[in-house]
Amino acid sequence: MIDYSERIAAIEQYLSKLDFPTEPKNLYDPIQYFLAIGGKRIRPLFTILSAELFNVSLNEALAGAAALELFHNFTLIHDDIMDKAPIRRGFPTVHEKWNPDIAILSGDVLMIHAFHELSVYPPNTFKKLSSMLNQTAIEVCIGQRMDMDFERIPSVNESDYIEMIRLKTSVLLGCACAFGGIMGGGNDTSINALYHFGEQLGIAFQIQDDILDAFGDAEKVGKQVGGDILFDKKTILYTTFQSMASESNKAEFFRLTNTSEQEKISGIKNLYKDTGVLEYCTKTQRRYHNNAMDFIAKVECPQSNYNLINLAEYIMNRSY
Amino acid sequence: MIDYSERIAAIEQYLSKLDFPTEPKNLYDPIQYFLAIGGKRIRPLFTILSAELFNVSLNEALAGAAALELFHNFTLIHDDIMDKAPIRRGFPTVHEKWNPDIAILSGDVLMIHAFHELSVYPPNTFKKLSSMLNQTAIEVCIGQRMDMDFERIPSVNESDYIEMIRLKTSVLLGCACAFGGIMGGGNDTSINALYHFGEQLGIAFQIQDDILDAFGDAEKVGKQVGGDILFDKKTILYTTFQSMASESNKAEFFRLTNTSEQEKISGIKNLYKDTGVLEYCTKTQRRYHNNAMDFIAKVECPQSNYNLINLAEYIMNRSY
User: Fewer C-beta within 10 Å: chain B N or C terminus?
Assistant: First the structure.
């Protein structure tokens, strides 16, 4: 594993020095708070590594990288209100620590600041980056809406589920990678390939997240395994089970939903294994991972993509 | 009064033909609904008239004009959630007709679409328009936060109040006018003068709104006069009274707050007249109006500003 700590430290420093106004406190304190409670800064790191393919310096890439991190944090603040989530990254969410009205408005202004970060780039680059972020931002909202709508319908098919995660989370990783290509003046084929590399990797990553929530190593996750099963979340495992399982498997699933926490989790995990659901989902995940690798190979750039592939492998190989 | 109906019809047609996705319905139906319930389209009209100063055609100006109308509608959808307002323009607000979660996300995506409208302009113009809207959007959020914070403090001084209305509403009118100058390739002095024309006019307009709520003609307003007094809203009249009134006037004001609706409204209106508050506020309003006229005179452009001044006079002379 390459050491990315210097680049991440540069992102952290850049974020901590953003010159947000200090007033009104009820607008900007929540933003400073939320940015300070962390996050893995995966998206800006992908932007920086993509930019490096075209010899773009860390300093030049930071504003665009930060734009994505700010945008991502805006989505979290608003999603947390809609999901009524009390905790994020181990800390109270903004609407919990302040109130929903404050979380709405601080989220709004944070999104505007995300776009504002791009203004350091010259007009042609600015327009390309803005258009890319704009299109992505619209898709992220559509994905969040689909996710919320899915909660209220009995079952979701696999392609709708994949489309939802593609829009809600993966396109932003695609945008992060494309940003590097745009900054570096890459040709359209390369920018497009970088975009799809990030997008397909994002889908693989999200599928893996669903799998690890049920089958990950509890010690490494640092939380109880099986939360998604316990709360009947419509994951890729659930979705696949609904389409693959026999009537008797479904009856057994239904019986398990009304048992103890422990029995429900281990019973449904066994069902997912015995019916081939786990294997199917693992294959699906690998397919998207392979797609990503096919796309990265198409990027025409002066520098080796070793660091970028290494980061992709690292986030895909975590067992937590 | 010039007839602006053709231009307004063009705005309406442009807005009705925006190619929003049709799905997800819970994301885009609220937007279509909200845009269809109307509004006076004042901001886009100012953009179009400002653009005409520089021979920019209606067709060329429409995307920028629409961006401002979309942005304005986004702020209304989110403000209505925060203000718990049930009705807007005589129709149920989005969070009432659907729910607050839907209103948050539809507002979010509407704001992104506002910025997206600007993408029809070439890179240099695009960057100037985006930066202007971006800066304005940040200020509008700050103004909305100040307004909400003011509700929770006992009194607000005049300059803080003016700064709040400048940010919450007037800068967007400034932005609307500056947009015309930017589209037309006006020089910095002219763009700046157009911005301040709109901004100062916006302040005058907002002060007039406060005055008319108490002293307007009930028939022309089409609603009960005195609503702001009844609900103890911190208007320019209230703010001025708090700083100008003697202790005995304040005691009388306090006594009136606990009387019948009718007595409260007419008693406080009399207090505002007798203590010179109404006269002072009317003068303040005229001062900002005059500032606006000074700024418009500084714009260097090939066409007469007659239409623009006419519109400004029209909106300032309404007695409702």
Answer: N
